[in-house]
Amino acid sequence: MRIALMVIMNFLIAPFAFLVLWFRAKTYKGNYMPGFKITKFMAKRAIWGGNIKLEVHGLENIPEKDGFIFYPNHQGLFDSLTFYASCPKPFACVIKKEAKNIILLKQVNEATGTLAMDREDVRQSMRVIQQISEEVKEGRNYLIFAEGHRSREGNKVQEFKAGSFKAAQKAQCPIVPCALINCFIPFDVQSIRRVTVKLIYLKPMYYEEYKDMKTVEIAAEVKRRIVETIAQYE
Length: 234
Prior knowledge:
Shape: globular
Number of helices: 10
Helix content: 40-55%
Number of strands: 7
Number of domains: 1
CATH architecture: 3-Layer(aba) Sandwich
Structural class: alpha/beta
Order of helices and strands: HHHEEHEHEHEHEHEHH
Distance between the termini: 25 Å
CATH superfamily: Glycerol-3-phosphate (1)-acyltransferase
CATH topology: Glycerol-3-phosphate (1)-acyltransferase
Radius of gyration: 17 Å
Strand order of the largest sheet: 1-7-6-2-5-3-4
Largest sheet: 7 strands, mixed
């Protein structure tokens, strides 16, 4: 119902925006800023059209220097929209291979340099992790959902997969934990009533803080910080 509302409220501008996104996807050559800009525009319009209030905290915690990775909890398809709409810095995502060719997501993925990971294929996953670490060293930012798949228990956070943090460890980059609250509601609840979702950017963990930690320990610490933040803002 809410997706339908988003489309109806943006029916005049949606076709034009999609054409621009399609063009950015087809002409992508490594520069993800143009694709990020149109995706940001579309995300803001979708949130407005969907009768959703996005409450953002902690923008000052986003590192000034590029070359970092966001690690949020994962509640559903709406999660990425909150980042595209609120983050002032461009980033690429890491998604599961099943979402690679879904209409609209496909164009967003191609326009922003998003990488698809096959969690059933260890070699492919390691290649993606290596590519992420190399690109982050060069100044590209990424967003990785460390739970691997969405939580189906509301704001309850699942275990974070240690392997997701190998990219940050290899790149020796800042890790930015992020807490998503009520982001499951827009697309999971059959209602178009006004809803408030929250995104909190936490203080980053710099390499000096986690360099002596195992990836399992890093995952547990990032999860702990997010869980505490959800309890504070929920």
